[in-house]
C-alpha cells in the first residue's frame, strides 16, 4: 500500500500503530487525522517530526466536508478508524461526545470512504461490545453484542453501521475487537498508567468495588500487529478478536504493580464501584491465530516491566498531562467515590 490514513493517531493505540507502520513499511505514507481532544497528544509522535512519509491533519472525523476533501486529495489505499472517545468512566458522566465521535464520526468516514472508493476500511473496535462474562467462558466473534456502558454501546453501534455498509454496499471493511491494552503512551486516566503514576507519587490507588473484576491484558504492540494483519490479510466483512491470554483481577494487577514499583499495599483504597461495571472480559482469538497467523508475542511479565520503566523515564510526559482538564476530571471522578 502506498499510503494509509489513520484516525485518532495521536492517542494511545493509534500512535503506537503509526510508529509500527513507519518501521514495517518505510516506503508507505501515513496520514494521521486527529481532532486533538484531551486524549490526543502530538507529543506521542514527536519522534516522527521531519519524516516526510508522515503527515498530520488536525481534523474532526465528524466534519464531512474536511474529511471528503482530505480523502480526495490524499487518496489513501486504506482507512483505519482508531478515533474515539475511549474511557468508560467518562461515558458515564456524559455520553454525548461518545455518540457524536464514535457513531456519527464512523458514519461520516464510511460515507466519505465510499464516495472515494476506498480499497480497505478497518474499524478498530473493542471486546466490550460483547458485554460481560461470568466466571467461565470466552468471547468469540459469534458472541452476540450486548454492550453495557454508553461507551461500549456507541462502539457496538459503529460496528453495526460498518456491518450494514458491507452488507448493503459491498463496502470493503473488517472489524477488529481487542481486550484491554497496556503499554507506553496510555493516557493516565486508565487503570495501569493511573496506578503507576499514583504509586510513583505515593498517592492512593482507587480500586473500584472489591477489585474482583477481570480483564484480559494485551501489550499494545501485539494489538497493533493484529490490526496490521487484519488490514493486509483480513477477509472483507469479517470480525477478528484479539486478546492477550492474560486474565487478571484488578486487585491482582494492583498487587503486581505495587510489587514491581516496590511500594506498599497500604496505597490501595477501595472506592465506590463503577456503575454497571462489567465483571469479566476474556477473549478467544483462535480465529485470528488460524486465519491471520497472529498471536500475542510479548509476555505479560516482560511487557509490564517495560511499561513501568517507560512511565518512570517519562515523568515529564505524564506531568504535562496532569494539569488543568485532567485534574478537574480526576477530582470529579474520585472525590465522591472515596469510601474512607
Ligand atoms: P485514546 O483515547 O488514547 O485516543 C483516541 C484518539 O482519538 C485521541 O488522539 C483523540 O484526540 C482522537 N479523537 C477523539 N475524537 C476524535 C474526533 N472526533 N475526530 C478525530 N480524532 C478524534 O484511545 P485508545 O485507547 O488509543 O483507543 C483507540 C481505539 O481503540 C478506540 O477506538 C478504542 O475504542 C479502541 N480500543 C481500545 C482499547 C484499549 O484498551 N485502550 C482496547 C480495544 C479497542
Ligand atoms: O476491553 C477493552 C477496553 O479496555 C477498551 O475498549 C477501552 O477503551 C479501555 O478504556 C478499556 O476499558 P476498561 O474500562 O476495562 O479500562 P480501565 O483502564 O478504565 O479499567 C480497567 C479495570 O480497572 C476496570 O475493571 C475498572 C477498573 N478501575 C479503573 C480505574 C480507572 C479501577 O478499579 N480503578 C480505576 O481508577
Quick rundown:
The chain is an alpha/beta fold. It has helices at about 10-25, 65-75, 90-95, 95-115, 150-170, 190-200, 220-235, 250-260, 285-290, 300-310, 315-320, 325-335; strands spanning about 5, 30-35, 55-60, 80, 120-125, 175-180, 180, 205-210, 215-220, 240, 245-250, 270.
Sum up the overall morphology in one term.
Answer: globular
Terminus-to-terminus distance: 55 Å
Query: Structural class, from secondary structure content?
Result: alpha/beta
Got a strand count?
A: 12
Largest β sheet strand count, sense and barrel closure: 7 strands, parallel
Output the CATH topology of the domain at 3-182 and 219-243 and 278-297 and 325-333: Rossmann fold
Bound molecules: nicotinamide-adenine-dinucleotide, 2'deoxy-thymidine-5'-diphospho-alpha-D-glucose
CATH architecture of the domain at 3-182 and 219-243 and 278-297 and 325-333: 3-Layer(aba) Sandwich
Uncertain spans: none
- Mean pLDDT, to the nearest integer, reads 97
Q: Any idea what the radius of gyration is? A: 19 Å
Give the amount of beta strand, in percent: 15-25%
Number of helices: 12
In helices, the fraction of residues equals 40-55%
CATH class of the domain at 3-182 and 219-243 and 278-297 and 325-333: Alpha Beta
The ordered string of helix (H) and strand (E) elements is EHEEHEHHEHEEHEEHEEHEHHHH
What strand order characterises the main sheet?
A: 3-2-1-4-5-6-10
What does this structure look like?
- The protein has a domain of 234 residues: Rossmann fold.
- The N and C termini lie far apart (55 Å).
- The longest helix is centred in the first third of the chain and has 21 residues.
- The chain has twelve helices and twelve strands.
- With 340 residues, it is of the alpha/beta class.
- The relative contact order is 0.13.
- 42% of the residues lie in helices and 17% in strands.
- The strands form three sheets. It has a seven-stranded parallel beta sheet with strand order 3-2-1-4-5-6-10, sandwiched between helices. A three-stranded mixed beta sheet has the order 7-9-11.
- The site of nicotinamide-adenine-dinucleotide has 30 residues, from helix 1, strand 2, helix 4, strand 5 and strand 7.
